[in-house]
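pasting for the record
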Amino acid sequence: TPGPVLFGTGKSRADFVRMLWPTGVVQDELPGERTRVAYEELDRKGSSCPALYSWDGNKYRFITDVIGPGVIGEWEAPGRWNAPDTDEYIRLTEAEAKPIDGKYRFRILSQMEEVTYLDALKLIAIDTPPGVDVYNNDRYQPVPPYPAFKLWQVRDAHTPASVIDDRGRDLSKEIASIDGIYAPVPGIANYPGFAGLHSIIIDAGAIPPGAAAQLILHGFTEYFDSTTAHSAYFSGIEPIVPYLEVADGKGGWIRKNESIGLPAGLPKTIVVDIGGIFPGNDHRVRITNNMEIYWDQILVNTFEGAAETRVSTLLPKTATLAFGGYPLELRKRPEDYDYDRRTPRDAFQLHSGNYTRYGDVTKLMDAPDDMFAVMASGDEIRVEFDAAGLPAIPSGWHRTLLFYADGFEKAMETYTPYPDSVEPLPFHAMSRFPYPPNEHYPEDPEHTRYRLEYNTRRVNPVVPKTPRYRRGS
């Protein structure tokens, strides 16, 4: 175990102490009149992704994080970084989002130590008859191809016949309902986000031959960051994303894919198609990975999905960029926040460069076109959708909302390319980030005019820059 590191100030008294830890987290302390003080490294996330809040009829409720798969510059191996998936659909129930004064209101708050490049927003309303729910096909797929947009109809979904882990432990209580009681994961000390290789075995029960069937899995993912990935790589630990196998009827398993995907950060639901994949009447599937993915509920759906539905789409009525601040963290794992209790400052550094000026950014949210609302830590977009643009809900039906967002975000981490600056701007057609010298952000008149008109808010570094990244390291 590493021992303490001692620092002295001679005869001078320190009024303020700022520590920049190797993880990239800044910690500020006020020693006061004390002449000797001990500090431990602050254990908190420096970066994550923007947070979504919706008006629920009483307050702005924290829903989850958004566009987490759109992160750029996540270190994977020497000379290799992640491939971002920029769009995400967040499912909302009628209890989570209610119109006020004829408008659905949301807040997208960049509340961590990161720069957010938000490119498009829309709201999709899906009306379904009694007893029929709908889920989208969205998930975090670490490698392309990314899942196509699709709506899954669900009716009479039920718990599996059994769920056990690879040690034979019964997980039926943990996965029975969305209650914050998660199936355990064998973590690895000093490598947050990574776990020991582990499996869950799900017996889906009776499925008629040739029938449709899906697993509906609700949970959250504790991400590892670039610093942890770098340390793990050189310790011989590489991520194994969840993959699916089916029982072969002979005591063994048949691998069916390389990845089923995973919940994109904080609690979300993903749907995994298991229709027609079984070689016989044994309907067990095994999901294996070495990541910190915590499952809260697992259901089986065998509805054929032939119910009538009605889908409507709204673009933002208004979108305004403003300073939002930092909500009080109510729970650390999975995180939860109180939007009504915000502070105007936190111990976060800011990427230097030109951000989008405060004010109206409605035009920037119309479509993914690489004309972003560039948001600093603490910024938010206040977006409204006109509920009058949606048809009335038929008697007895109910409405599910999908909040769509597209964009990128970049953390301020040790092994992230260009960790201290807004530039270079990402763009959808780039082959990777950092992109090669023969690629560049669009320089046509429209994008040049956008940058000159909108990105006029200059932010300079608030703490000394540190040498963090060398190409190829």
